[in-house]
Amino acid sequence: MSDNQQNQLWGGRFSESTDAFVQAFTASVGFDRRMYRQDIQGSQAHATMLAEAGVLTGEERDAIIQGLDEIRAEIEAGEFEWSVALEDVHMNIEARLTDKIGITGKKLHTGRSRNDQVATDIRLWLRDEIDLIDGEMERLMTGLLDQAEREAATIMPGFTHLQTAQPVTFGHHLLAWFEMLKRDRERLADCRKRVNRMPLGAAALAGTTYPIIRERTRELLGFDEVCENSLDAVSDRDFAIEFCALAALCVTHLSRISEELVLWTSAQFNFIDLPDRFCTGSSIMPQKKNPDVPELVRGKTGRLNGHLIALLTLMKSQPLAYNKDNQEDKEPLFDAVDTLAGCLRAFADMIPAIEPNREVMREAARRGFATATDLADYLVRKGVAFRDAHEIVGKAVALGLEKKKDLSDMSLAELRQFSDQIDDDVFEVLTLEGSVSARDHIGGTAPDQVRAAVKRGRDALR
Ligand code: ARG
């Protein structure tokens, strides 16, 4: 970055240079240069439209478009000299264009303002990032479906209050995670609709006196609609807030998954193994293998919640139209995008690599009296009222605790002391396989239902 210098792009009415600290303090080029591609894309579309509107000549348009192409190449080759004195990405590129093509470069800004320019750039940038994030979500969801299909009949305890409740299949549990992500992906697609509207043409705040053709610029940039009101167009950052909200919610879901992975990799649960490449060791305890990836993703939730609150607070009470406050939208938004994309990528890599310890899971379900509800349902089928059945089974569990026996390990005689409605067909319902298979309706944990849900999931991803 070059030193303090008078800004040539708006210096006309100023009689002294900007204070050096103020210049550095107000500059955004350190971070908004990240949008250089979208800034150039927007400028090229604007110049094309201006030529069609008769505001620029065809020659001027061609010079601008070619100059901008060359500037993009300079930036990508690392040859572009960014200047803090030129404040932001927009003025850096425009000044370089004028260096290169002379006075024609100064005509590019006809009929627009940095206010509609920056709002357009952020939307173009976020649209590109949303499409990348969507791809990572899809990859993660596909990984979940593949695992769920493999583990459709793997039995594990299902929990409420983190206490063993009823047996479920591991595939069913994986599909619960899939559902969370399916909603996140819907929210992403919905957010994209409001991102994909074009502020360009609003100019500083009131529109412009030039005969611009907004519909043409919209078409060139692939926006679905133009923003209807110029005052709103330059000041609206709802789309960034919406993105941060869905990012916070998505990583909240990932944190819930993370928490289960952390628990399940512990020696106490030992339900799963995570391959070494997703874990790290301890510098002091040689036996340790820590589930760092899920722990870190769990921790990222705080960061994304912070960005959401930052943007909501940034917008609160802002009067129309553009205010410099809005320069503060970028760093939280950029970091929200990077953080969410990173978490999704790590998860998409890790989920297919989870190795379930099927025997351990099954044994945990067996030991936890997970089929107690099945015994109660059995008694109800024999004509016992549910409340009475609940009481009978409670007593049977108490005996099991005393004798350290699961319900399925008790003899018929032991079980019959609680109810003479119990016959030797009871053992079918007390098995773990019988229990999960009996929950055979849409949304239930039966292996066949899991397989059917995987199929529906794959259709939805297509
Ligand atoms: N760097 C500014 C931002 O990010 C660009 C728009 C500046 N507009 C202005 N009138 N100062 O918001």
Features:
two-stranded parallel ribbon, 5% strand, Fumarase C, Chain A, domain 2, binds arginine, mainly alpha, Fumarase C, Chain B, domain 1
Mind explaining what this structure looks like?
This protein folds into 3 domains: 93 residues, Fumarase/aspartase (N-terminal domain) (Fumarase C, Chain B, domain 1), CATH 1.10.275.10; 248 residues, Fumarase/aspartase (Central domain) (Fumarase C, Chain A, domain 2), CATH 1.20.200.10; 94 residues, Ribonucleotide Reductase Protein R1, domain 1 (Orthogonal Bundle). Helix 10 packs antiparallel against helix 11. The model has no long low-confidence stretch (mean pLDDT 95). It has 19 helices and 6 strands. The protein is elongated and about 100 Å long. It has 462 residues and is mainly alpha-helical. Strands 1-2 form a two-stranded antiparallel ribbon. Strands 3-4 form a two-stranded parallel sheet. Bound molecules: arginine. Arginine (ARG) binds next to helix 6.
For the termini, the CA-CA separation is 47 Å
**Total count of strands:** 6
Helix-residue proportion: 55-70%
**Mind telling me which CATH architecture of the largest domain this is?**
Up-down Bundle
Gross morphology:
elongated
Uncertain segments: none
The CATH topology of the largest domain comes to Fumarase C, Chain A, domain 2
In short:
This protein is mainly alpha-helical. The chain is 61% helix and 5% strand. The protein has helices at 20-26, 29-32, 36-52, 58-76, 89-101, 114-150, 170-195, 214-221, 230-235, 238-265, 292-315, 330-350, 358-367, 372-381, 386-403, 412-416, 426-430, 432-438, 447-461; strands at residues 155-160, 163-169, 197-198, 225-226, 272-273, 355-356.
